[in-house]
Write a structure and sequence with these properties.
The complex is a heterotrimer of chains A (452), B (972) and C (218).
Chain A: H1 15-27, H2 32-59, H3 74-98, H4 108-128, H5 155-188, H6 192-201, H7 209-242, H8 254-280, H9 289-320, H10 323-334, H11 338-350, H12 358-362, H13 364-390, H14 406-429, H15 435-451
Chain B: H1 6-17, H2 35-44, H3 46-53, H4 57-62, H5 64-75, E1 83-84, E2 100-108, E3 111-120, E4 123-129, H6 142-151, E5 161-162, E6 165-166, H7 169-185, E7 191-195, H8 201-213, E8 218-221, H9 228-238, E9 243-246, E10 253-257, H10 268-281, E11 290-295, H11 300-304, E12 307-310, H12 313-326, H13 339-354, E13 359-363, H14 369-381, E14 389-392, H15 403-412, E15 417-421, H16 425-428, H17 435-440, E16 444-449, H18 454-458, E17 461-464, E18 473-476, E19 482-485, H19 498-505, H20 513-525, H21 529-539, E20 569-574, H22 588-591, E21 600-601, E22 606-608, H23 610-616, E23 622-628, E24 631-639, E25 647-651, E26 681-692, E27 696-697, E28 712-713, E29 740-745, H24 754-762, H25 770-774, E30 783-789, E31 796-802, H26 811-815, E32 821-823, E33 829-831, H27 841-845, E34 852-853, H28 863-868, E35 881-882, H29 888-900, H30 913-917, E36 923-927, H31 934-940, E37 944-945, E38 957-960, E39 962-963
Chain C: H1 9-36, H2 38-41, H3 56-62, H4 67-70, H5 85-92, H6 103-111, E1 117-118, H7 131-136, H8 141-145, H9 162-170, H10 196-202
Classes of the chains: A mainly alpha (452), B alpha/beta (972), C mainly alpha (218).
């Protein structure tokens, strides 16, 4: 189905203008100064990250605040958080593409880009948290002279595959989607350097009917691949916890709970980026208030589903009557780390309620703030799920506590650099919004208007 | 170790150590001054060298971060020499790499702790109780285990010192020669010896000869804990010195007034074995093994007691009087007893009365002498003497004056020479004696000790003593039998034994330690000397008939019947359960052993009662200042549940002044408050002062929170609930072949830490340092959990040893992505260090949290343990997970032996280190598929239960519920 | 519109893509292969220099000395043990008494310093290998140490990879021989040798149980 209802893009703009407007961004970069500032800040964070990693590898994971019982914390919960954020990108571009929700066409490009580097940030954590990272390759099933194989029962083993597959598919999907625009950018490029750059990357795109046909097929095929991955990957991640017998982890709802949470946090971050980009590059005509409105609705929906997870978790514990499960619920609500639990509730669900009002959804500022609080809330949730389950599991004698050290924080904050630097470079080099797909929407709308 | 020099020396040493390979290690003595050997030792302890150069090991531990950085960098490579060095002459009976065992003993407060030493290539790596010896029967305590690490302690004194500067033995000898001329001239006038409790026949013989030659010389005895107070009491009761020996295996009822029979000390193994024997025989209805304890500071006996009463020191006297009165030993009297006290006294007295001849009334050696004397009278009245208690000549037989006398004489300037043998009065003497200062007035002072300690610093001269494991010597165990000490390793440093030093003092030139000991026993062994000598060395015990027990009758001294006017609080002194009086405070690894009741490591609290804490408004770690007379100490508080309301307990062994000592800067020096005439109890004041110090404890939470991890059975409910059926999707394993399993009887566990100590040494468990323990990173494979239930004023306490459960349905196993933890067909949960990449999933999934992780490279933190490492167990490097393996190296060794003979492993052929060490046989291990083995019997017992059964892990390690013979106080 | 690329550009691009893929695949194969190469495992490469150029070939096939004459302890303990200098001198005090080649041996005895051989067959520290049990269960020296009797200078015959150990631990039968043939070189079962399966039974091999981790790693 097409946008037969209210048009999402203003119709009083020509297709040519749109192409010019978007293709110009890399070619004649508008906000050079602000971009440079952002980049240098990100560079600083990236350096912090690099230093922290060197220290980590030379001295060992002991530099973190870990102990027995809490021997998983920042590394794992930030891994889950980043990966969750990544998922929204794929959901928006792939799922909505298949469902023919064209409004996503204005958002999918940077949503996918975000996915890419969020997954990179996530993917690096499992390596960092190893006691002996130099033996990482033992996790791959290669024909070793040891004559032993990885253990395929282990959720961590699947993890490696899940993340790598997800990364590969995301990259390809993103790149394929980019090709026509690279073509367009190439054609508008005047300087030789830009011409060659886009020329090579556009793989000789000429925009012939055959090209478009093949491209459509490939693009939708990849989308069809990506969508189930979103679900499978984060379900798998949830098994990291659900597979253990630890109270607060050992629960059937975890896969659904994690996938929804992922989408929730992801959409929040997409909304944040959308708002920033449209103001930075003056794209109000392409990323319209209607877009924000829809994003707000999606955010609200996924948020409420996540909230259901919370309710069910508590119900689950009391329904089971398991003393240890109940103990854990109690520890979450009233224990030493209750602030993570209540923090998660407040940041995730309280501010979220604003989005019931249309004006709030359409106000960039409000939506931005709500999205930020969701991002924070979901971070607290991951923290809560890990630490509150581990610090008091079964035997009272081994109850412990956990406080992140400087190095825990430095590496986490460093990953923002790892995310921002490539992201900034991409929006510097490539069209931030899918030109062809936007034009497609616009064209359809105008066609309707003329026939209508 | 430096690859260039070390291997070369090592081979040379192997050669020397075993040249001729004679059983008595006579050849070892040649090593005494072997430079090559010492070079090898230095090469063996690079870290030790660093530390000696540096600012001391504790600082080293504090600076761990830096060292770990280096270690981490070095940790990656497998850098090893590829040199292979054969013998030049291989001795017949010493193939390389095969363990050999030697019976000898280490000493503790003079008493012999009979050990069997495991020696690889001339290097002892493990001590176990000598199974042939009645005072050990294979069992050990933490101190016996740790003696091995003390041997290798890099902080030991290495060379003679003059005024703190290294000198030579030659210099010492010439000094002694001049001094001796003066002694002989004046018949020994002004010559004083300070010795601890000594049971060694050789040393006693030598000292007596010296005194007879120099009649004016005097001996002063000083043992900071020791039995001095006990002997005063015996003087009072019998008019002569005597030493009571208890036979707890005979006791159906024990009433202990502040006597921690099962607590740490030379008698622990002896008492624990007796009590456990009796406890094991006890069945509901048949006989009793009741223990009634009234104590001011919670001890291990109080934990296992039937009824326990918290009583301040003055009340102890009243309670003794009340019991004596009820049993008609003293005139009836009206001590003002509280209801609780009255009730307790009634039950205690009734039990004593009901089991005349099968009971014991014991009063702590640190209680007032008169009270102890009353106990002697009571036991006599009950007909216990000769049955549950016998009296004998004290093992520490040496007659001598007190330290106070010496201090007085020194102040008076009547002393010209003081010779301190193997004790440390400058640190441990009550401050009011101002001993160190007085020592300064003495022209000639010589200290012989294992360490260059406070006394060495206060003395003009110091000579290093050899460790018991390097020495020829002899000593008597608590049961009175003698053991001949034989060296199991060449001397590491230029040290000498006490007999050699004494011989030097009496003018012998180049004394031979072995000859001195042989001389002592020449009389006893008579004609067949060589035969009996060889036999004694082989067995680790001298066969000689024991003197008949003394038959004595006790006088009843009158004791206070009315409470003394209570001003201030009662400050009592106790030895530290891990470093004792400070003699072990440099063994890093005892510092890290959690203290049985507080679980504190690397520190020394002031233990106060909850009531006192409440009035002072202090919590754990807040500083208080204790003052008694001129003395003051400040220390962090530990609120001790069950401690007597008005009592503050102060522990010995900390606040050392020696800079390099591990406990330098830890805790306080209790001697500041101790009195000379009553060193165990003073009246004083307590007040809160600024400051807080958080303790590094291995257990943070102490209540069971409504769970029943430790189950109890009673006469009315003699069995635990039957196990619930546990459905599983996995195929059931058929019980064929070996099925290794462990059963821990919580009714026998006294929380003595012997198992942990043995486990750590057997499995090369590394020391991590205070900071790491504080972060919750201690490495113990086997921990002893301690729980409280009931009110905090007088709670019921429980011990629960928790090793790996070796679950049949192990959650950890399915978590590991690289198969580093797997299940063996025999039910072992295997941990493969070299495959582990450190994802820590196993530990996250483990419901018992028994897994330990190498957060840093801990290998170089405590150099002492390097040489003691068990060659059959991998030393874990940074980034790998580790845990209890059921001592799989012992299983595999037994299997290899069995397979070579094409037979099965025999029942009892495999013992785990913890099981072997346990003095109460609380731990049994074996093949549960063989119905006749102890472990299988236990698994069938009614008291059998599984920890966290609801998780469905099906552990191989299971428990026997504790027998509560006094549920709710109504008696069983 | 002007051409940006020559007409060959397309071909080049494809070539590059293919080349890239080939490179990745190639590297993987190469790495896997390298880990098995003699260069990496140190098997069959030329012998390392030793203080004395001892020839197993001469002593074993030439003089027919049994392995256990020098490597005492091989059937009693974990380690085979290198012969003490004394053992060498039992013969060489009689023969080749002045051979310059043997000077180091004579010095060793004279100065009472061990000969510093370099280890040829070496296992990692975390492998707890026992010679005695292997011999007791009928695994011949040749099985791991190869044709030592053909080595003028001693070299490592087999790549002591975990795979090498496991192959036998998973299916020991083919590598078993009667006790009298343990030290025999180039041993081939003849008519009266019992079948592998019978040998396995006779030796009471606990088949399937000797592959669990703690058999070798502790």
């Amino acid at each position: 189905m097409t946008m037969s209802e209210a048009p999402i893009l203003p119709r009083d703009q020509s297709l040519g203008d749109v192409t010019d407007q978007l293709a110009r961004i890399p070619l004649h970069f508008p906000t050079r100064r602000r971009w440079l500032i952002a980049l240098s800040l990100s560079m600083l964070l990236l350096t912090l990250f690099a230093v922290s990693v060197v220290v980590l590898f030379t001295r060992g994971v002991g530099i973190w605040g870990l102990n027995i019982p809490v021997n998983w914390a920042f590394a794992i919960h930030n891994y889950v958080w980043w990966l969750g954020i990544g998922h929204a990108g794929t959901l928006i571009s792939a799922l909505l593409l298949l469902m023919g929700r064209e409004w996503r066409n204005s958002l999918n490009r940077f949503a996918e880009t975000m996915t890419l580097f969020a997954v990179v940030c996530a993917g690096i954590y499992p390596v960092l948290h190893l006691g002996r990272p130099w033996y990482l390759y033992w996790m791959f099933p290669y024909p070793a002279t040891m004559g032993v194989w990885p253990q395929f029962r282990s959720p961590l083993e699947w993890d490696i595959w899940a993340v790598l597959t997800y990364l590969t598919v995301s990259v390809v999907f993103w790149y394929v989607g980019l090709i026509p625009d690279l073509g367009a950018a190439r054609d508008r490029a005047r300087r030789r350097g830009w011409q060659v750059f886009f020329g090579v990357l556009s793989l000789g795109w000429r925009g012939s009917a055959v090209h478009w046909l093949r491209w459509q097929q490939a693009y939708r095929l990849l989308a069809a691949l990506a969508v189930p991955l979103v679900v499978s990957v984060h379900s798998e991640v949830s098994l990291l916890f659900a597979a253990g017998t630890i109270p607060g982890w050992h629960s059937m709802i975890f896969p659904a709970y994690f996938v929804l949470g992922a989408a929730f946090s992801g959409f929040a971050v997409v909304a944040m980026i959308a708002i920033v980009i449209r103001s930075l590059f003056a794209l109000k005509n392409l990323v319209t208030d209607d877009h924000l409105d829809i994003l707000g609705k999606v955010l609200l929906a996924t948020g409420l589903m996540t909230a259901y997870g919370y309710v069910f978790e508590i119900f689950d514990a009391f329904y089971s009557g398991e003393a240890h499960e109940i103990q854990t619920v109690h520890d979450r609500i009233a224990g030493a780390y209750a602030w993570t639990y209540w923090g998660a509730i407040v940041f995730n669900f309280v501010f979220l309620q604003l989005l019931w009002w249309r004006c709030a959804r359409r106000s960039p500022l409000v939506l931005f703030l709500v999205s930020t609080s969701v991002a924070i809330g979901m971070w607290l949730e991951r923290y809560m799920i890990l630490v509150t389950s581990l610090y008091r599991d079964f035997l009272v004698s081994s109850w412990g506590s956990y406080t992140p050290t400087f190095w825990d924080w430095s590496i986490y904050i460093g990953t923002f650099g790892l995310f921002m630097v490539p992201f900034l470079l991409i929006i510097r080099l490539f069209p931030v919004i899918a030109i062809s797909e936007t034009k497609e929407v616009l064209h359809e709308e105008q066609a309707e208007a003329s026939h209508g | 170790m430096t690859q260039r020099s070390a291997p070369f020396d090592l081979a040379a040493i192997r050669h020397r150590l075993t040249q001729g390979g004679s059983r008595q290690w006579s050849s070892v003595e040649e090593l005494t001054d072997d430079d090559e050997f010492r070079r090898w030792v230095e090469a063996e302890f690079p870290a030790a060298a660093t530390i000696l150069a540096g600012t001391g090991r504790r600082t080293f531990l504090k600076l761990m971060g830096a060292s770990l950085m280096m270690a981490g960098l070095a940790g990656c490579g497998e850098g090893r020499s590829d040199a292979a060095l054969p013998y030049v002459n291989q001795p017949e009976n010493a193939p390389p790499g095969i363990a050999r065992h030697f019976a000898t003993a280490v000493t503790f407060e003079g008493y012999a702790q009979p050990v069997l030493a495991t020696v690889y290539n001339g290097r002892p790596t493990k001590l176990d109780g000598n199974p042939e010896h009645p005072a050990a029967r294979g069992a050990s305590d933490a101190f016996m285990q740790a003696a091995l690490l003390q041997l290798y302690d890099p902080m030991r004194s290495k060379t003679p010192l003059q005024k703190g500067q290294p000198t030579t033995w030659a210099a010492i000898e010439s000094m002694v020669n001049t001094a001796r001329a003066q002694w002989t001239a004046q018949g020994g006038m002004g010559l004083r010896f300070v010795v601890g409790d000594i049971t060694s026949p050789t040393i006693i013989r030598q000292l007596r000869t010296l005194i007879s030659a120099l009649p004016e010389a005097r001996i002063h005895r000083f043992e900071p804990v020791g039995c001095a107070n006990r002997q005063t009491a015996m003087q009072l009761a019998f008019g002569r010195v005597a030493e009571p020996v208890y036979a707890l295996e005979q006791c159906e009822a024990i009433v202990s007034l502040d006597d921690d029979l099962l607590g740490p000390g030379p008698w622990q193994v002896w008492h624990a074995q007796g009590w456990a024997k009796r406890r094991g025989e006890m069945k509901p209805g048949e006989g009793r093994a009741r223990v009634h304890v009234a104590e001011c500071v919670p001890g291990l006996t109080g934990v296992v007691a039937t009824t326990r009463l918290a009583a301040d020191p003055p009340r102890i006297t009243l309670l003794a009087g009340a019991i004596a009165a009820r049993l008609g030993v003293m005139q009836g009297q009206s001590a003002t007893l509280s209801d609780a006290e009255h009730q307790w006294v009634t039950r205690a007295a009734e039990d004593l009365d009901a089991h005349r001849g099968r009971s014991l009334f014991s009063v702590g050696a640190h209680a007032p002498a008169r009270v102890q004397a009353v106990a002697c009278a009571v036991n006599e009245k009950l007909g216990n003497v000769g049955r549950t208690v016998r009296y004998r000549e004290p093992m520490a037989a040496l007659e001598g004056g007190s330290l106070a006398d010496l201090a007085r004489d020194m102040q008076a300037g009547a002393v010209t020479t003081v010779i301190v043998l193997d004790c440390n009065p400058a640190y441990a003497a009550p401050a009011e004696l101002r001993f160190a200062e007085a020592l300064g007035r003495v022209p000639t002072t010589l200290h012989a000790g294992l360490y260059a300690d406070e006394t060495a610093a206060a003395c003009g001269w110091h000579v290093p003593l050899s460790h018991a494991l390097e020495s020829w010597g002899d000593a008597r165990a608590v049961d009175g039998s003698a053991t001949i000490l034989q060296p199991v390793i060449g001397r590491l440093y230029q040290s000498r034994t006490v007999p050699e030093v004494l011989a030097m003092l009496s003018g012998a030139v180049g004394p031979d330690a072995q000859a001195l000991v042989r001389e002592t026993w020449a009389g006893t062994f008579g004609d067949d000397f060589d035969g009996r000598w060889r036999q004694a060395l082989h067995d680790g015990i001298v066969q000689e008939e024991q003197p008949a027990p003394l038959s004595l009758s006790a006088r009843v001294p009158d004791i206070a019947t009315e409470p003394a006017p209570a001003e201030g609080i009662d400050i009592v002194f106790r030895p530290d359960p891990c470093v004792w009086d400070g003699r072990f405070s440099d063994v890093a690894w005892l510092q890290e052993l959690p203290k049985p009741l507080t679980k504190i490591t690397w520190d020394c609290p002031v233990a106060i009662s909850p009531q006192l804490a409440d009035t002072l408004k202090v919590g754990n770690g807040d500083f208080v200042e204790l003052a008694a007379g001129p003395g003051k100490i400040a220390g962090p508080v530990w609120v001790m549940p069950g401690q007597a309301a008005n009592t503050a307990a102060v522990f010995l062994g900390y606040g050392r002044a020696v800079h390099r000592n591990l406990s330098h800067g830890l805790g306080y020096a209790a001697s500041a408050l101790r009195g000379a005439d009553d060193p165990w109890h003073v009246k004083g004041t307590i007040r809160r002062v600024d400051g807080h110090r958080s303790f590094a404890t291995s257990q943070l939470h102490h209540r069971m929170e409504g769970f029943d991890f430790v189950k109890e059975v009673t006469a009315s409910r003699p069995t635990t609930p039957p196990p619930k059926p546990q459905p599983t999707l996995y195929p059931e394993k058929s019980p064929e072949g070996y099925g290794w399993a462990m059963s821990i009887d919580l009714d026998r566990c006294i929380g003595c830490n012997a198992c942990i100590a043995a486990c750590n040494i057997e499995n090369n468990v590394l020391v991590v340092g205070r900071d790491q323990v504080a972060m919750g990173r201690e490495m113990l494979w086997l921990r002893v959990d301690r729980y409280y239930s009931g009110d905090i004023e007088n709670p019921r306490s429980y011990f629960q040893p928790v090793p790996c459960m070796h679950c049949e349905m192990a959650p950890c196993e399915m978590g590991c992505p690289v198969n580093a933890t797997t299940h063996s067909p025999e039910g072992l949960n295997q941990q493969i260090y070299n495959r582990c990449i450190g994802t820590r999933t196993c530990s996250s999934y483990c419901p018992y949290k028994v897994r330990r992780f190498n957060w840093f490279d801990y290998r170089k933190i405590d150099p002492a343990t390097d040489a003691a490492h068990n060659p059959d167990v991998t030393v874990r490097s940074r980034g790998v997970m580790e845990k209890c393996t059921y001592c799989v190296q012992r299983i595999e060794a037994a299997r290899a032996a069995a397979d070579k003979e094409n037979r099965d492993i025999r029942p009892g052929e495999v013992t785990t280190a913890c099981q072997q060490a346990c003095p109460t046989q609380a731990i049994s291990f074996g093949n549960m598929n063989n119905g006749d083995e102890e472990v299988s019997k236990r698994r069938r017992s009614g008291r059998h239960y599984v920890l966290l059964e609801e998780v469905g892990t099906r552990p191989r390690t299971t428990y026997l519920a504790r027998w509560n013979d006094d549920p709710g106080g109504e008696g069983a | 519109m002007t051409q940006i690329f020559s007409s060959a550009a397309d071909a080049w691009l494809r070539l590059l893509a293919a080349g890239g893929l080939a490179l990745v695949a190639g590297t993987t194969v190469a790495a896997v292969g390298f880990a098995r190469s003699d260069y990496y495992t140190g098997a069959n490469i030329h012998p390392m220099s030793q203080p004395v150029p001892f020839s197993h070939q001469h002593h074993v096939s030439g003089l027919g000395i049994d392995c256990r004459y020098c490597h005492t302890g091989v059937d009693t303990g974990a380690r085979a043990g290198l012969p003490p200098t004394h053992t060498c001198m039992t013969c060489h005090s009689q023969v080749w008494t002045n051979a310059p080649l043997l000077a180091p041996v004579r010095h060793s005895l004279a100065e009472n310093k061990p000969l510093a051989w370099r280890r040829v067959a070496r296992l990692p520290d975390y492998v707890y290998f026992r010679h005695d049990i292997h011999i007791a269960k009928g695994v011949g020296c040749e099985t791991c140490h190869g044709r030592i009797d053909k080595m003028p200078l001693t070299a490592k015959a087999k790549a002591f990879t975990m795979q090498f150990c496991l192959d036998c631990h998973r299916d020991p039968a083919p590598n078993l021989r009667p006790q009298d043939a343990i030290t025999t070189m180039n041993w081939k079962p003849d008519a009266k040798t019992p079948a592998a399966s019978q040998l396995a039974a006779a030796y009471h091999l606990r088949l399937g149980e000797i592959t669990h981790c703690t058999v070798c790693h502790r």
